[in-house]
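To whoever is on call:

I kicked off a structure prediction for a single chain this morning and the downstream step that reads the tokens threw a length-mismatch warning. I double-checked the sequence; it's 232 residues and nothing unusual in it as far as I can see. Pasting both halves so you can look.
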Amino acid sequence: MDEVDAGTRLGEDAVRHVVGVVDRALPFTTLTCAPSTATVWCGDVVAHVRAGSDPLAPWRAALLAQLEQRHGERVKGHVPAAFVLQWWCEVVATPIAYAAALGPWVLVPSGAGLGFELAAGLNPHRIVVEPAGVELAVEPEPGRRLERGHTAYLGLVTEVVAAYAPDVRMGSRQRWGVVTDMWDTAVRRARGAAGESVGPEPTRVSCCFIYALPGMRECAACPRNGRGRGRN
């Protein structure tokens, strides 16, 4: 890409370029500008929340049924509740954090400009960016890029997190810990993809409850065991 001045808003072709750069760096997820009939737009999720409904309930129910079928026994509802909230935040955090780490870019999606599609395992495996629905700007200062990216991230996830209503108890530390953990995880992975040294995974604030599945145990960064490295 040609050099541009800091603060310059870039057009849709530049958005497509950044999406391609990020997609090549992602290990497990596809980032694309090509939606399909399976795309769920973040703006629609937020609109349902504002209307008083629980748009993530079918996702949680489907994941719970799948987990119980896979493991052949009852699974606590905390597991799908935690994973769905994590995935919601991860969808938003990933393109923003990677754009900030891989280039001088601040990517700010609107709800209509960001969507996702689920894999057979019900995890998001395609994140969709609509170029006309995002703002892209150059910010040469890395700390400022991340600050602006974090603001954009919170702007998209906060309403859904605040209204999240799983059928299990989820305290504010767990709920907002997910928001923090998913941003920090996306930034850490993005920095690693950019060639930076990121060190061991820090201890999480929230728990994913994977240990509640048969045969599973806490992850190294689980707040229950404290084996992860503390946050700076």
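Update from on-call: the warning came from a stale cache, not from the record. Cleared it. Sanity check on the structure: Residues 9-197 form one domain.
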